[in-house]
């Protein structure tokens, strides 16, 4: 096998995805246990700790892609990942088991998901997401974090002494899992960037297509794995909270940080198709959540088919 050969690049992609998955599993496991040890509820853990942990691949891929390859990689990975989170992750999870939507998540967190999508489209509509735009996104992230912290304080103040006695103790191995997960995510994202960009670029695909498909799907695997496990176990609040929180962090944290580091160019094709697709998927899933306060199996099929159409439309 020669360096740069298609087989080497394919092995890099597979190895990168595997490391991203393993790293996210370690990070989710360790961070979740640490969070539960201080009394966070399942829905709050899903929309905060686990969502932020599973957003880490998008952050690493987008930053490394923007700095070393193209900002199209980062933007495509985020838009594609958010669409995959809604269409694929929630869709498949709902097919396995209908997902009840927590009232807290719908009232307090879903509005931020809507706002984040609108901000991304609005700020990027002029063809560029620059330093000022990144600061705006990060400012909204601070507001979201403040709202979460306020909610956590409210929840913790309501915990009884008996409930506190039943909480798990924080362990050193949980902290070690978090560190190990981050290391695996850094290395996995590096491999995924190198393999995916080289292989598809050699085949004539554009950077935005690479970001919207291979990288977006690869970095959505942690959300998919976490949500599928939660769906199988009947922990719907975890699945929905994970996707809602991840979509918020993807835009506010990842795009915000990348835009502060380097301006992000937004191609006309993105404004013409990918941005409207993101808004459409967001609007549809919010409508599903509002109607009956659950995502049914029929909704799941519709979301999954919609994601398949989205990927098909991306093909050159």
Write up this protein.
- This protein is mostly helical and about 325 residues long.
- It is built from eleven helices and four strands.
- The strands form two sheets. A two-stranded antiparallel ribbon has the order 1-4.
- It is globular, with a radius of gyration of 19 Å.
Summary, kept brief:
The protein is built from eleven helices and four strands, in the order αααβαβαααααβαβα.
Biggest beta sheet summary: 2 strands, antiparallel
Q: Can you tell me the residue ranges where pLDDT is under 50 for at least 5 consecutive residues?
A: none
Return Rg in Å: 19 Å
Query: How far apart lie the N and C ends?
Result: 29 Å
**Total helical elements:** 11
Quick tags:
316 residues; two-stranded antiparallel ribbon; 11 helices; 4 strands; mainly alpha
Question: How does the SSE layout of this entry go?
Answer:
Blueprint: H1 6-37, H2 42-68, H3 71-96, E1 99-100, H4 103-124, E2 128-129, H5 131-157, H6 161-165, H7 172-202, H8 207-233, H9 236-261, E3 264-265, H10 268-290, E4 294-295, H11 297-314
Antiparallel strand pairs: 1-4, 2-3
